[in-house]
Amino acid sequence: MLVGILIVSIATAIPTKEECRDKLDNDGDGYIDLLDGGCDNKFDNDETDCGDGVCEGGETSISCSQDCGQPDSCTDTDGGFNILLRGTAYGVENGIDYYYTDSCLSDTTLLEYYCNGVDCVNNVVNCYDYNLTLCFNGTCG
């Protein structure tokens, strides 16, 4: 005769409450649940409030530029590292706009700005290293 024991496991999920009724300050702005401007009702699961002037919770410069500033970016008008054309690298870094134009540091030395992804970088270039003799108006020639 076989005698067996049957073990039954019942997994129970612990219900979680929505952010707007969990009695926590989920977005770190000092307000809890329905007192938080980000909560529309007690079933709202996001206390953040894009457009309230506070970068909070899950907001980022990409998801809420109104509160967190513009995302970092870089554009170069001469197409990148190009010592034959004068260009301007411009964009946003840490919420601040910038504009850097290629320029000559001396008769033979160029300060070349270009983008590396969303970052603006620069190189000091000796025009002689590229078989060019003169730096003039932000280019080697």
Number of strands: 8
Q: Uncertain runs with pLDDT below 50, 5 residues or more?
A: none
Strand order of the largest sheet: 1-2-3
In total, the number of domains comes to 2
Q: SSE string, helix = H, strand = E?
A: HEEEEEEEE
Portion in helices:
under 10%
Strand content: 25-35%
Report how far the terminal alpha carbons are from each other. Answer: 99 Å
Radius of gyration: 28 Å
Shape: rod-shaped
Structural class: mainly beta
Biggest beta sheet attributes: 3 strands, antiparallel
Total number of helices: 1
Query: What would the average pLDDT be, to the nearest integer?
Result: 88
Question: What labels describe this entry?
Answer:
about 140 residues; mainly beta; 2 domains; 3-stranded antiparallel sheet; 8 strands; about 5% helix
Per-chain topology:
Layout: H1 65-68, E1 73-76, E2 88-93, E3 96-101, E4 103-104, E5 109-116, E6 119-126, E7 135-136, E8 139-140
Antiparallel strand pairs: 1-2, 2-3, 4-5, 5-6, 7-8
Q: Can you give me a brief rundown of this structure?
A:
The protein is 3% helix and 27% strand. With 141 residues, the protein is mainly beta. A three-stranded antiparallel sheet has the order 1-2-3, with no helix packed on it. Strands 4-5-6 form a three-stranded antiparallel sheet, with no helix packed on it.
Describe what this molecule looks like in 3D:
This protein has about 140 residues and is an all-beta fold. The protein folds into two domains: about 20-70, no CATH class; about 75-140, no CATH class. About 5% of the residues lie in helices and about 25% in strands. The chain contains one helix and eight strands. The strands form three sheets. Strands 1-2-3 form a three-stranded antiparallel sheet, with no helix packed on it. A hairpin with a 2-residue loop joins strand 5 and strand 6.
